[in-house]
Specification:
The protein is α+β, with helices and mostly antiparallel strands. The protein is built from two helices and four strands, in the order βββααβ. It starts with a strand and ends in a 17-residue tail after the last strand. GO terms for molecular function: L-ascorbic acid binding; metal ion binding.
Length: 117
Amino acid sequence: MSSQSGNDVLEMFKYGTSYNLTLDKFLLWRDFFKVRVHPEFYSLYKPACFSEVSMEFSKRAREVALEITRAISESLGLGPNYIHNAMNMDRGIQMLAANYYPPCSQPEHAIGIPPSH
């Protein structure tokens, strides 16, 4: 079954599956879930602890990204916050994405995930 909550990147949740044997010639054999975590944090409360774990993971991933942008700015001879400010990173969107790859019954028809996802 192929389903998706929508194609709007600004949605707080996206989910779906990319394998429909009756409609698709080549399959993107995966289930996926995406949740917007910045600038506002959204999460599910089930399963237990998902919200806390996803918030902590997202916070730490953002810290790493911000440290990398600071290092790049400084290596270019710019101020440490140049990229951060130029890209308005406080207002930028951060998504947490998870993919599940179930066993594929027809691997000759599966292509994995295309570059645009």
